[in-house]
Amino acid sequence: MINKDKYRQYAIETNKEGSGTASSYVRALELISGALISNETSFQDCIHIYTVSSPQRIFELYEFIKVQQKLDNDGIFKDSQSPSYHREYFCSSALRSYAEFLISNEVELEIEKKLKNKDYSFDDKKLSKELKRVLLGVNENRDTDVIRQVKARKGQAAFRKNILRIYNDSCCITGLDIPELNRASHIVPWAENKSIRLDPSNGLCLSATYDLAFDRHLITLDEDYRLVVSRSVTEHYTKDVVKDYFHKREGDKIYLPKTYKPKQEYLMKHRMAFAKSG
Asked: What is the separation, in whole angstroms, between the first and last Cα of the chain?
């Protein structure tokens, strides 16, 4: 069920930490509700904003509020006790954020349902179809950046959930099984190849240190899924902690999942980048 706390958490997660934007958006939505109560408009169904589940309807209200903000003392915000919210366009920005939240929330529910099938691979085309289903009736051309942001965020979330599930929440190098400390690492980077960005065979579950090392091409995997460490690490870093993390693990074979083993064609691309980085 949609509620203020759920939206607030979404706003916190999607805005810069410590910026206060999330609280400002929640307050702006409250001011919009108050303004709708005090004025006769065609949006009486939106007075209780968190009962509105249609992105289309929120986009329509968004267009209306964009105009009203500019009217200042002649519009629905004329009696507002916090005029800076509409004068600085927080109200329309909050509605845009809430519409994104509604889209995101519905796609997230769809992903959760699909991932109950352990062999289901939520690829980029399927994610696009789910977004289009959610967005039926919404003018996508008007807010393509919103759609793009939601698609990227939900795609990344789906990829992470898939990878952690496939690897039993455990780092494939160390066996560390604390999900909060593990990352869903792309073998071929997210931005490099759109067609495989959600392919579980393009992922590894790595704890944070190894995820960063893999991303920076300080480590890679050979044709037998054994760990290879860059010479820049083995030759220039000799402290015991580095030896424990890297030197001693070189040549170890990673844990391989029962399904969606990392594809060697993807690892080949990573090894080529690893070789170039020295």
From this structure: 52
Q: Where are the domains of the chain?
A: 4-160, 170-277
Backbone angles phi, psi at 206, to 5 degrees: -130, 140
Range from 5-19, 185-199, 261-275 carrying the lowest mean pLDDT? 5-19
Amino acid letter for position 272: M
Between CA 99 and CA 101, with CA 100 as vertex, the angle to 5 degrees is 90
Which DSSP string corresponds to the chain? Answer: ---HHHHHHHHHHTS-TTS-HHHHHHHHHHHHHHHHHHS--S-GGGSSGGG---HHHHHHHHHHHHHHHHHGGGSTTTT-S-THHHHTTHHHHHHHHHHHHHHHHHHHHHHHHHHTSTT----HHHHHHHHHHHTTTS-GGGGHHHHHHHHHHHHHHHHHHHHHHHTTT--TTT----GGGEEEEESS-TTT-GGGTT-GGGEEEEEHHHHHHHHTTSEEE-TTSBEEE-HHHHTT--SHHHHHHTGGGTTPBPP--SSSPPPHHHHHHHHHHHHHH-
Angle at 209 between CA 206 and CA 212, to 5 degrees: 80
Residue matched to tokens 């809430």? 98
The label of the residue with tokens 């690829």 reads 123
Spatial distance between the Cα atoms of 186 and 197, rounded to a whole number of angstroms: 8
> What rounded mean pLDDT belongs to the chain?
84
Q: In degrees rounded to 5, what are phi and psi of residue 244?
A: -65, -40
State the pLDDT confidence band at 137, using cuts at 50, 70 and 90. Answer: very low
Residue 249: other Cβ atoms inside 10 A: 17
Percent of the chain exceeding pLDDT 70 equals 81
pTM of the model: 0.62
Q: How many residues does the chain have?
A: 278
